[in-house]
Amino acid sequence: MEMPGLAGGRYGPAELRPLVETVLAALEDGATARGGPLPGGGPKETARRVAGALGRPLRPEGTGAHEALHTLVREMARGAADPADPYCAAHLHCPPLAVAAAAELAAASLNPSLDSWDQAPAATEIETRTAAGLAALVYPDLPAPDALMTTGGTESNQLALLLARERAAGGPRVQVVCGGNAHHSVQRAAWLLGLPRPIVVDTPAGVLDPAAVDAALDELPGRALLVATAGTTDTGTIDPLPQLAQTAARHGAELHVDAAYGGPLLFSRHESGKLDGLQSAVSVTLDLHKLGWQPVAAGLLAVPDGAALRPLGHQADYLNAADDTDAGLPDLLGRSLRTTRRPDVLKIAITLRALGREGMGALVDAVCGHARQLAAAVERHPALELYGRPSISTVLFRPAGADDEQVAELRRGLMYEGRAVLGRATATGRLWLKATLLNPHIRPQDLDALLRLVADARTRQSDGTP
Fold this sequence. Notes:
The chain is an alpha/beta fold.
């Protein structure tokens, strides 16, 4: 058997070129076969098709690179939930930009690992400069802000709580205070780190009430970390950051902001004002695989000064020997809790260079505008009910007169038919359909058609017709 070619090295591009053509053809074939935002038939039908295409995962003899690529990439595309489809709007799951996806090919081919400089010389510098540049977007008036690359909001929030714990070392344990609207990862991180169970402040209006936070902090004798959210998972709302920053400061508490969703509003000159107060935080979570159009993963944790990251420092002689560090080799072990790390920063750096802040801001403005258009269309529709005006790009609505069970059934019906992928969220004690609009290319007629799908499904449901 001929030895398979390698992706890197001098001859890597020649090996990759025909394989990339096979992949592109398979992606096109699979999307055509799917014909919509999601494969029809539900989980059992998808499992049946995948089993038929995959066969035995480890067979005695291989089928060859082109056959394997075409068969499984086609099946993956055929069975995908495609966030580029205008009717796929359930989650914070963005359609990646083509330039970012192309950058992933380069990253995978070169395969640097960002745990020591001698495995990633150029990638180290790209990460250092790009992360600092994005941190400066959060903290524009500070001399040395920095950021760590993470796998997403869950890891970023965990690191934020870890840094808060270490800052308090030797004193009372940190007590986390968060809203009922906070991401689940905040409570999970406290559990993982051995911190007290977070105090959860009720958020009946969908956002943290500074007066309620003030009362909660009044009851705490020790050190507290207040976690606010800029772009909640369910409704996309933004906590009142300036008032919360003032409340935290008055009690000597620190503020961490989970801006995994809303952080990229900073790219937009029209929308960035919604994040006033963000610069008061001791740490900020950002995700560019949400409102940044990057392939997963593209998370960051920004801090106002790189010195805040020193507690993450770690020494392993084979990666950052003291004499190598003294000789000027960058020490990367303090840049993450992970050891082997992909160069996720490359796609971000390439995207930022290609589009600039103006280009990124235009994408942000587009999806926020689409959300306002959809909300207005829901308000005009006689058979639909709107939850509220969108803060970012999430719109909650439901068929008028439907109960929660009917809303859930309607959503599953559209999903199993492969016609539309909408999320679900509970707010004001009721279940809502959730449209998270992250596709900048969506058209007004697509929004109208999405609402027709929902309204027609509700009519069929009411009539008892399939």
